[in-house]
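Allow me, if you will, to draw on your knowledge of protein folds for a short while. I have a record of one protein: its chain in single-letter code and its fold written as discrete structure tokens. I should value your view on which stretches of the chain appear to form regular backbone elements. Thank you for your consideration; the sequence and its tokens are set out here:
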Amino acid sequence: MMNRLMRAGLLAVVALLAGCVAPPQKNVDYTAFRESKPASILVLPPLNTSVDVAASAAVLAQATQPLAESGYYVIPVGVMDETFKQNGLTTPDDIHQLPAAKLREIFGADAALYMTVKQYGSSYAVISSTVTVSIEAELLDLRNGATLWTGSKQVVHANNNNSGGLLGMLVQAMVDQIVNNLTDRSYSVAGMTNNMLLSAGTPGGILYGPRSPRYEAQ
């Protein structure tokens, strides 16, 4: 019995480490981005393909700050949400289907950010409890429909405790899982993921906006 537990634990560690390895950064073509020179961004409610219904709202709530800090004027989330509701649009799926020209007409933004939450939430794997948030994003020019930038980011936050032997690690993993659920650590990890994905100056990330002092230097 103990041998089976140890083998399962080792497999869980290997799987966890493999999940934390970032894929090689692909080269990003910024030609369209530089030609477009967007100054304002509309962040749309993210699509959610994870199992957690709270994922879209959690990611949306924390997406505007890194964009604003990167030098862009971001349409306030409350204004965006209320405008769509007044027009009978309440789901991200319906909103993402709107033509770029229509979004430009309504909000006057230069570009729109489309996001999809692929993973969101905590999981328990024998001797560890992890919180994973994975987001894909695309920045679209609302003036001509061109794609300016695409990116993705996954953050895995692991609560590991290697002390106390195997039994101690099993107990700690269960405690961590309970804490993750009660304190909603997924929300905090979503914030980290947004910052890594949407902050200018990161490898493969967006360019600085015109409100940033680094705008002319990029």
Summary: The chain is about 45% helix and 25% strand. The longest helix spans residues 2-20. The longest strand covers residues 111-125.
